[in-house]
Amino acid sequence: MEPSHSDMPCPGGKKSHVCDVCGYASSKLGALKVHMRTHTGQKPYRCDMCEYMCTNSSALKLHMRTHTGEKPFTCDRCEYKCTSSSALNAHMRTHTGEKPHVCDICGHKFAERGNLKIHMRIHTEEKPYRCDLCEHRFAQSGDLKTHMRTHTGEKPFTCDRCQYKCTSSSALNAHMRTHTGEKPFTCDICQYKCASSGALKIHVRTHTGEKPFTCDRCQY
């Protein structure tokens, strides 16, 4: 069947099909239809191997590689392989050092747009991930996952030198320094060194005079 006039690209690439919710525009009606699913929540494409659902066939094709193990994109500088061109482009920046995504508030640069999006929550104070067992909220899904272990008691990270167990890789890394004696955190005012960022933060208050903890019964 021949496409209708409205389904065909507009002459000269003119974007005549406009979303009446956010202003998104496209020269193709089909692209607008797919876009509208971001507003309606419609996900007509479903994986037949798991519960995954998505808005378009391309996303489903990409997802299927998580089941098949297919990694058709290969780095020409190392042995890295991945499932998508966007993942390969992000990986290539580990070789080039390129950081094209810049925060327009503080100037921090990032290799991936997703990392910039997460960083922006520092400025907006957005915390979209909420614990359903308490009132804690988090800017990153990984932080919520770690937090949930305080409720479940799960401690999947184990020290190979002693019986210490903990809820996160960062806590395990900090613990390992009790064995190695490593002190990677250095005060930029004096020569003090310590094993954790938290200890350094407390030390810096000896220089700044900051006293954030207040007694609610006296002026201490």
TrEMBL record:
It is found in: Nucleus. Its main location: nucleus. InterPro entries: C2H2-ZF_Transcription_Reg, Znf-C2H2_CTCF, Znf_C2H2_sf, Znf_C2H2_type. Pfam families: zf-C2H2, zf-C2H2_16. The keyword Cell cycle does not apply. Keywords: Metal-binding, Nucleus, Repeat, Zinc, Zinc-finger. SMART domains: ZnF_C2H2. Residues 17-44, 45-72, 73-100, 101-128, 129-156, 157-184, 185-212 form the C2H2-type domain. It comes from the Eukaryota. The keyword Transport does not apply. This is Zinc finger protein 239-like. It comes from Priapulus caudatus.
